[in-house]
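Researcher: Here's the sequence for the chain we discussed earlier.
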Amino acid sequence: MTTSAPAAYRAASTPQAPSTRLRYTLRANDGYLLARHQRDGPPVTVVPEAERATNFVDFATAANRAVAMQQLGWQDLRIVAFYLPPFPCQS
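Model: Thanks. This is the structure I predict for it:
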């Protein structure tokens, strides 16, 4: 019995180059979703830039979060891949 798809296995076993910093985030119609961890205000807000939004290292985690957010009432969510800027050089 197969327990994993070949595409998922390949992605999980192939290391990414450290300089790429590929991330995934959730996009709604108004912008990108940012999880807030504060007592005051809404638990999720929308921000205009992907870099400021909550981001995920792998696609599967982003997909699971998108499903959970849809169950809470968020509609038309999309998973967007983007690259974070490289780490600044340390001298």
